[in-house]
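Hey L., structure's done. Input below.
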Amino acid sequence: MTSSVRGLLVDLDGVVRLWPRRSAIKAARDCGLPEQAVRKIAYDGGFDLAHHGVWSHEQWVEQVTSRLTEEFGEAGTRAAELWAADRGDADPAMADLLRRARAAGLVTCALTNNTTAVTADLQLHGLLDVFDLVANSAEIGMTKPSPAAYEAALALMDLPAGQVAFTDDSRTNVTAAVYMGLHAHHFTGAEEFERFLAGLGITLPPAAGRPPARAVAVLAGAAPPSGHAEADVATTVATRYLTTGLPPAILAARMAVHDPTVTVVPLGPDALATVNAVGAVTTWRLLPHGADPRAAAGHVDAWAETAGDVDAEHLPPWAPAARTAAAGRADDLLHHTGWALRQLAAADSGGDPLAAATHLDAVRQHLTALATLLVRHQPAPWPGATASRYLPPAIREALTASLRADPTTRTGLAAGLRPLLSLLRHLRQMTQLVLDTTSSWPWLHTAAALAPLLDGPPDLSAQAPEDSLYTPALAGVYERHRPLAQPMADALASWAAKELSGRDVVELGAGTGRITRQLAGHGPASYRAVEPSAAMAAHLQSANLPGVEVVEADALLLPLPALGADVVVEHEALQFAADPLLAADEALRILRPGGRLVRLLLHPAGPHPLAGIDAAYRRAAFADGPRPLFFGKGTDRRITDHLAARGRPTQDRPLAEFTQHSTAEQALGALADRAWPYQHQLTDPAHRDGMGAARQEAARLPASVSVPYVLRALITPVDQEGC
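Output:
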């Protein structure tokens, strides 16, 4: 060893001792407390007293326990116990480095902002032999980044700053060390620190008896199942979900050491990519400790509430507070997407295919996160997590098409990018409609930068693709399996004759016109049938209903003037809007003073005796993939509450009660024709599995039943005469 450096001064937590379990957050979650409850109490002023030595470690823990118990009762006590019991994990690579440093004659010292428990913790982890000295803030009375803390540590080591190498995972503490004259290094992993020492002329000997390093396979991780948006669809691209307490830079260094044939590239705070010797690319989605990688990868058995609970999942509409919070996150994701596209273009023009491939994955990751945010309407299960099982078919198809391409070739890079740009246009429009926020990223400049790769500048304007669920095939059979009972038709006609005659009417979600036919023929001054699906709108247009103008548009952005309608009516359509509450607001915008929003609802008076047939179909058809999503549960109540908060009360008015005859054969026929939108997510084999299960269930149920129904009208606002 030829170097003027005679000592190593290292931080403890985040360097030699790691905290992979995030015990404060995990303890709060496990005990049903708010996620930040333990952290908020444990690391406020009491922690300052503890790491300055005013309180002992035991006094600090006792104080935290007392406050958590006072605020949360027994659950708080248990959370405090779980938090205090976690003493972290030793990093064997860093411990080995320090032992080798001591064997080489270097003085090793820890400089840590900590409590009086440090010595006991070092003994617990078998680390007493890695340090000659410990400068603990609870004992020296000073904390980093104060210069006095470094001076106290150097005094213990009996060395000048110029003869000491320092490492810490805090950039602030590294900056202070540079100011003090130490050879300072920002810690990202033991291997990186050893290379830093080598640059200072320090060559550490191998540990006595240590076996030579050998190449091992990289970690397996959890692979997405078939049908998932990130499922493997080519030999050159793969995605794996991995639980780890290590940041990407440290994990990347370790993976490279384990397998020198692999190139490892960190992609951000929660992902990295590896490329093996034959050019196969794997993207690693990094999850915090406590997250289930199989659940994150979309394995249905990992997230279903019970083994058989794969029927359907209801997601709520946006709440105003959640929408506001999501707007900022969406802006960030669009900004990161734009930046990654510019980096991709630069890497392509610079002839760096690996960098271009990793930037392509970053684009895919950001758009997946944005799609998850827009579709799920709820916080992710952990910060930064995506949830591909919530993505509708059009989005999953774009992601899958991108994954099919080989990004290590220029042609494959372009092929992998094009479907993502189509998805970007769609998500930009959804962000504007749902979150009322417009990205400020310079998309025109980004399009120009991508022009050489794509043989011309791509169109990055906000656009909406056709909904792949509402296909022409579905439109053709839609009404066949949704016949109106005569009592319902009579009730709608009677109501329309009284309430719509002479009025300007707008119907939302008109579909193929099964309700339109009952309402439009009773003398309205005008009747506009709004339908977002091109296939459904074309079917309705071909019917040539007298006096009906078909408008292809989304309920969130009606191409109609304000104050231009007397009645806006819909039949169980708002629940399928991307944001039902905003759709209700848009309906109010086009209503004149005294106008009415009418929501027609038809529901069985109790459980449907044949509902098990459809449920059996779904369980079997979605057994190997994400279960279908239904947005309707509770939507009408939420819309009513939302309107009430805006000063628009709603009257619930029954229009008809009747009994309808249903048969198992009818239920099977609808499924066989794929008459329900969710069925258009399915492959033909999955559909066949579903039909087999549905037939078995039908054989167990009555061949025919009589089902009582109630037709209701939710009318907002209620006029003086009570409607």
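The chain has 28 helices and 20 strands. The radius of gyration is 32 Å.

-- N.
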